[in-house]
Amino acid sequence: MVQIKTPEQIAKMREAGLVVAAIHAATREAAVPGATTQDLDQVARKVIDDHGAKSNFLGYGGFPATICTSVNEVVVHGIPDDKTVLKDGDIISIDAGAIIDGWHGDAAYTAFVGTGHAPELVELSRVTEESMWAGIAAMKVNNRLVDISKAIESYIRRQPRPSTGKYGIVEDYGGHGIGTEMHMDPHVLNYVARKRGKGIKLVPGLCLAIEPMVSLGTARTEVLADEWTVITTDGSWSSHWEHSIALTEQGPLVLTAPDCGRAKLAEYGVEAAPDPLG
Length: 278
Fold this sequence. Notes:
There is one protein chain. The chain is α+β, with helices and mostly antiparallel strands. The protein has helices spanning about 5-30, 35-50, 120-135, 145-160, 260-265; strands at about 65-70, 75, 90-100, 105-110, 170, 175, 185-190, 205-210, 215, 220-225, 230, 240, 245-250, 250-255.
């Protein structure tokens, strides 16, 4: 069943989303050469505690940390530890979440560690992030779920190919509904699956986490022995971006963006809904 939220519930999700935004800001500053991924996890834990929130990652299905830290060829679900030391030139995606009064927020970003990154890595992150915003811009009342998937895939396919030959749009993982749980129906594909039809109609009160994952090579992934860490099968580096969004009568409201997504959505000719917290 797809959960539809009231304006009051969306306001509570906005509170959770702002905690996630604060985690992103703090971990981005801490993601420097010499830091361990466990250091980043501790930073996230402090932000959650300071805001009186709860972690929705810690303990989820047995996950042992507060955030996911996915370095280089790790696509998603990397587990923070004291052995993974960030190096100059690495890229890392940090996926974070928070709960306020039972309502969830969830978002991810890709960061560059140090300097000297190859232009194709910079472009990989840009393409992944922009495909996410294209998907968010397609989150309009009376559109269908497939319109989001189509917007994401179409954006990526329109971009010049990298030197590796192609962008791999990861198919084994995608976006999802969010609300009183972190992962809910519907599943949001980052590509158009012809056999799945158009999907549900998008209506006010629908909340989704839209999260493309793109590599510089294959779309295929495998899970390591820890049963969490997902890597590309060819070792190609990948990028992951995500926001939680509520669809309202006034348009999309990006719950995990400090400005509700106003600036980026304007680039797509879409007006973001006003912040319910003022």
